[in-house]
Write a structure and sequence with these properties.
The chain is of the alpha+beta class and 636 residues long. 57% of the residues lie in helices and 7% in strands. It has a four-stranded mixed sheet, with helices on one face. The chain has a three-stranded mixed sheet with strand order 6-8-7, with helices on one face.
């Protein structure tokens, strides 16, 4: 008996020892040689947890929250009269924001103010009636199966047709039947409650929402995410072509579309047979489009399904939604205001110098690449030399800012739609104008961009902050942070998509056939390298993330060469720039659909391909970060 008891005690002690060992191993700090991203960021990861209303947390989201608080505070003081509005162009911004924050009026009047817009749709009895009103509604930015915007293409302003947004936001939510049904049922409940709340009976609401969902289902196969140019040749879009011809009134200009398949087949969707479904869809869509400006119940009914879709437990506030609507309506005005107010001109000059130095390094690299022949080399260098650099914020306010006004007698919905209509009117009056001086990306949203259609990079003031950049940081920290981002955006000009555009932003095959073939082979090597990786028990899609992977690898290498010497401070700054956390509910969807790889891999894999990293950290065979020399891939 004693012997059995002793064996039991020894077994329990062994089990306890095993648990302690496993717990110690799980908490053992990662080493730079085994997982560089974890080694550098593990303390930050432990200290920062996702709030219930967050899908992800990163440097970018933290900086954006800080910027939002600053702008929100400024607009509130301007709206209250505590401070004078600093720019005449800001008057409309403040007037709209003040109206959006008048929650008492919204609770009292918003449903009544909504009714005329719904009655307009209800009065459309036939498809023929719809066609008579289509142009007017398009110009007024009211609910339709397409909408108008503009974009800069080859440095000139062009009209753009935008396809409708699916009820679940993106077509990938419709791919898995089980999850699709779950998401759509959540949408149905919210939409039925919303339509009841704005005045329809329960039965009417159920019918309207079902018919709207049926029309939404018709859209899914045509929304593939591929842009193009509107053309009638060989397509089934006769009615739309006629509409746009009438709209442009004889003006010769090409029209860009964000969904080429959809806009080649609109006659199959927008027609007499589908009109009953489309009419219900227009009603539901009109309410959804204006729901952020209605009362609190409308806001919650409309947004709850998307909150559940993102795995969030807490709804954003009406005040936050008001700020986001203000951002969307006035990006040009707020870009100028934010940069002028919050960014140091000396820092702007410093970043310009950094960017110019990185550009020179990239040009020198192109001069010596052994796989480029002279004709392609010349065109590539020309493209980098001609690249427009938008740094920090615009030097002058965009002329469109002067076109926006808010009339005192307007209610919030009228003000909102009038502002959208004013933008459409401005765009139509400025088609074809050279826009190289105009920022198409706002300075107050934290990101950085390369625009192939402009051959321009955008480095907004919002991202020119620690940990990416600061005048108080060391040179190593700045080059490992914003330096790699600057170079990343430049290299995008030569990734799988950007390489199809020339120095003026024109789609143009500027390569020799020999060089293009070599480039495709080098890209394929990188695609295969990434497709051989797994993350969160899912296989990576090397083709999906190819463009970003090329830019990450080239950006790291070019920035390091400009900095001048490989050292720990540079590499650690690089790793810190990617620190982030993502909610598990959306991680799988990102792996299947996001062109960016997970942050951990975006740090570790480019470093594994960089010989100098091995020298600094003495990486040896058997280390987690080790990759045999013959498996290391470099494109640029």
């Amino acid at each position: 008996m004693k012997k059995k008891l002793l064996l039991v005690i020894l077994g329990l002690l062994s089990l306890l020892f095993l648990v302690i060992c496993l717990n110690w191993l799980s908490q053992k700090p990662a080493s730079p040689a085994d997982n560089f991203y974890q080694a550098v960021n593990q303390e930050w990861m432990a200290e920062n947890q996702l709030d219930e209303d967050q899908m992800a947390l990163s440097n970018i989201s933290i900086l954006q929250d800080e910027i939002d608080q600053k702008i929100e505070g400024d607009l509130a003081t301007f709206a209250s009269g505590e401070k004078d509005v600093p720019l005449s162009e800001m008057e409309a911004v403040v007037d709209f924001y003040r109206m959006a924050l008048d929650l008492e009026s919204r609770e009292r009047d918003s449903i009544e103010n909504l009714r005329p817009y719904l009655e307009e749709i209800e009065a459309i009895a036939t498809f023929e009636d719809y066609q008579k009103l289509e142009k007017e509604r398009l110009l007024q930015a009211k609910a339709l199966p397409y909408s108008l915007s503009s974009l800069t293409l080859s440095r000139s302003k062009y009209l753009q047709l935008e396809a409708p947004v699916l009820f679940l936001g993106d077509s990938f939510y419709y791919q898995d039947q089980a999850s699709k049904e779950q998401y759509l049922e959540s949408f149905r409940k919210g939409a039925v409650s919303l339509m009841q709340h704005v005045g329809y009976s329960k039965e009417e609401s159920q019918t309207l929402v079902q018919q709207a969902m049926d029309f939404d289902e018709l859209l899914v196969p045509y929304l593939t995410g591929s842009p193009g140019i509107l053309t009638s040749s060989g397509n089934q879009n006769t009615e739309l072509i006629q509409l746009m011809s009438t709209l442009l009134d004889g003006k010769e200009t090409k029209i860009v579309v964000d969904e080429a398949v959809y806009f080649s087949n609109t006659d199959k969707i927008v027609n007499e047979e589908n009109f009953p479904l489309m009419k219900s869809w227009m009603l539901v869509t009109q309410v959804l489009q204006l729901s952020d400006l209605l009362d609190e119940d409308s806001f919650e009914y409309a947004n709850r399904p998307y909150q559940e879709l993102g795995g969030m437990g807490k709804m954003i506030s009406l005040e936050s939604a008001a700020l986001q609507q203000t951002y969307r309506l006035f990006p040009e005005t707020l870009s100028f205001y934010y940069g002028q107010t919050y960014f140091n001109p000396e820092d702007k000059e410093d970043v310009i110098e950094m960017t110019s130095a990185i550009r020179e390094t990239f040009i020198e690299r192109l001069k010596t690449l052994d796989w480029l022949t002279e004709p392609s080399r010349k065109k590539a260098i020309e493209k980098v030399e001609e690249m427009i650099l938008h740094i920090a914020y615009p030097d002058e306010i965009d002329p469109i800012s002067a076109y926006f006004t808010v009339q005192e007698q307007d209610n919030l919905l009228e003000a909102y739609l009038n502002l959208k209509q004013a933008r459409i009117s401005y765009d139509l009056g400025h088609l074809g104008q050279v826009e190289s001086h105009v920022w198409s990306k706002p300075s107050f949203l934290v990101n950085a961009y390369y625009s192939p259609a402009e051959n321009a990079i955008y480095l907004p003031a919002s991202i020119l902050q620690a940990p990416y950049y600061s005048s108080q940081q060391t040179r190593a920290e700045n080059y490992g942070g914003i330096g790699t981002i600057i170079a990343h955006e430049m290299v995008h000009a030569f990734d799988d998509q950007g390489s199809n555009y020339d120095s003026q932003g024109q789609p143009n095959f500027w390569w020799t056939l020999e060089d293009r073939q070599t480039f495709l082979e080098r890209m394929y090597q990188m695609e295969q390298q990434w497709s051989g990786l797994t993350y969160a028990e899912q296989a990576m899609d090397g083709k999906l993330t190819l463009g970003e992977n090329i830019a990450d690898a080239g950006g790291l290498s070019v920035a390091l060469e400009t900095y001048g010497k490989p050292d720990e401070a540079f590499f650690e700054a690089y790793a810190r720039s990617f620190r982030s956390k993502v909610r598990k509910e959306v991680e799988g969807l990102l792996l299947e659909n996001d062109s960016h790889a997970p942050a951990e891999l975006r740090v570790n894999v480019p470093l594994q391909n960089l010989d100098s990293f091995y020298e600094v950290y003495d990486i040896q065979e058997g280390d987690g970060m080790y990759l045999p020399p013959e498996e290391r891939v470099i494109v640029w």
